[in-house]
Amino acid sequence: MRDDDVLAKNPLVSQSALEAIHDQVFGWALSRCDYDRNVAEDLVQQTYVELLTGKAKFEQRSTLKTFVFSVVQNLAKSRYRRQASRLRLISNVKSRDIVEHAEVAVAAEYDALWGAVKALPQRQRDILELVFCRELTIDEASAVMGVTTGTGRVHYDRAKKALRARLQDQQDVLNE
């Protein structure tokens, strides 16, 4: 890492290292916001702001990729907590126009595999995405999710078994 490449408030992070994982970070951000590109861009931008200002301090307790994914995860959680709080307030006021404006657009139909993945519990979906799509180890994925490695392994194992069973059921229906 070159001295002129490091971030001033986060000396263990370099611009080139962030550029190298940017596509994967953006993909993770997309999945955290139901594939809304605008929201994902905001999440990634806020993540970089956190790194540049030193609010999110990388201390090499994990890999840089795992750390940045965790920052995205935490920002997404806080964003949706705020949105849920606002929606509760709106529903209390019973303002129809505001609620209609705040509704999330209905997603397009997904293929059989994505449908089976979406039917899994949230943590099982997260661990599969982190391991298969984002190329993290189970240990790193567990750290991103904020669970122990043992819990991550259990979610991973259950997710694979449930996915296999769902896909087999779909295949059986197609063969009949």
Kindly report how far apart the N and C termini lie: 59 Å
Following the backbone from N to C, one meets helices and strands in this order, namely EEHHHHHHHH
What structural class should be given to the helix and strand makeup? mainly alpha
Sheet having the most strands: 2 strands, antiparallel
> How are the strands ordered across the major sheet?
1-2
- How many E strands? 2
Uncertain segments are: 95-110
How many discrete domains? 2
Beta fraction of the residues?
under 5%
Percent helix, as a range, is: over 70%
Described by the principal axes of the CA atoms, the overall outline is: globular
Number of helices in the DSSP assignment:
8
Radius of gyration: 19 Å
Mean pLDDT: 82
Please describe what this structure looks like:
- This protein is mainly α.
- It folds into 2 domains: 1-107, no CATH class; 108-176, Orthogonal Bundle (Arc Repressor Mutant, subunit A).
- Helices cover 72% and strands 4% of the residues.
- It contains 8 helices and 2 strands.
- The protein has helices spanning 15-32, 37-53, 64-93, 96-102, 112-118, 122-133, 138-145, 149-175; strands at residues 6-7, 10-14.
- Helix 5 (112-118) packs across helix 8 (149-175), helix 6 (122-133) crosses helix 7 and helix 7 crosses helix 8 (149-175).
- It starts with 5 loop residues before the first strand and ends with a helix.
In short:
72% of the residues lie in helices and 4% in strands. The chain has 176 residues and is mainly α.
